[in-house]
Amino acid sequence: MAQLSLIAAAAIVIVLMEVPYLRKNSSQKDLWVFYLMLGIGVAINGAQGLQIQLPNPAEWMEAVFNPLSSLVFRLLQ
């Protein structure tokens, strides 16, 4: 539970440091992207802190590119 508190505290510090600058100098799109990326990062780190098994993105890439590479190799032979 302490890990989740540290993650939340870090997110709050990041928001307090970055949001005033983004509001002053950037568009609303930049602010939304910032919140989205921070939210994704907090969610992933929170899940890891709770020791939830997360899928490995490399396995997804392998599932997509293996059939594609097989097709290319068959076409080149």
Question: How does this model look, in words?
Answer:
By secondary structure, the chain is mainly alpha-helical. The chain has one domain (2-76). 86% of the residues lie in helices and 0% in strands. It has three helices and no strands. The protein has helices at 2-25, 28-49, 57-76. The longest helix is centred in the first third of the chain and has 24 residues, at 2-25.
How is the topology of this model organized?
Layout: H1 2-25, H2 28-49, H3 57-76
Helix pairs in contact: 1-2
Low-confidence spans: pLDDT under 50, at least 5 residues?
Answer: none
Helix-strand sequence: HHH
Number of domains: 1
Helix fraction, binned, reads: over 70%
Main beta-sheet strand count, sense and barrel state: none
What class would the helix/strand composition place it in?
mainly alpha
Number of strands: 0
Number of helices: 3
On the 0 to 100 scale, the average pLDDT is 90
Specify Rg, calculated over alpha carbons.
Answer: 20 Å
Give a quick set of tags describing it.
77 residues, mainly alpha, 3 helices, 86% helix, flat
Short account of what is shown:
This protein is mainly α and 77 residues long. The chain has helices at residues 2-25, 28-49, 57-76.
